[in-house]
Amino acid sequence: xxxxxxxxxxxVTLVLFGVWAVGxxxxxxxxxxxxxxxxxxxxxxxxxxxxxxxxxLEVNKVLGAFDGLSVQVEQxxxxxx
Length: 81
Known about the structure:
By secondary structure, the chain is mainly alpha-helical. The chain has helices at about 5-30, 35-55, 60-65. Helix 1 (about 5-30) runs antiparallel to helix 2 (about 35-55).
C-alpha cells in the first residue's frame, strides 16, 4: 500500500503533466489556443524540473547508471582525392 507521500507526489505529477499536456497538445486538437513559444518552453522546463525533483530523477543519478558504458570512435583511413 502506498504511503501518503507517494499519493501526494503522484497527484502533483499528474496535475503538472495534465496542465503541460493541455498546453502542448491542446492547440493540435483544437482544445485551447496556441501558447507563446517562450511561455511553453519555460513551462516545459519547470514541469520537468519539478517532476524530476519529486521522483528523485537528478542528472547525476541517471548518468550514474552509465558508468560502465564506453564509446569508441574510429577514424576511416580512406581519403578522397
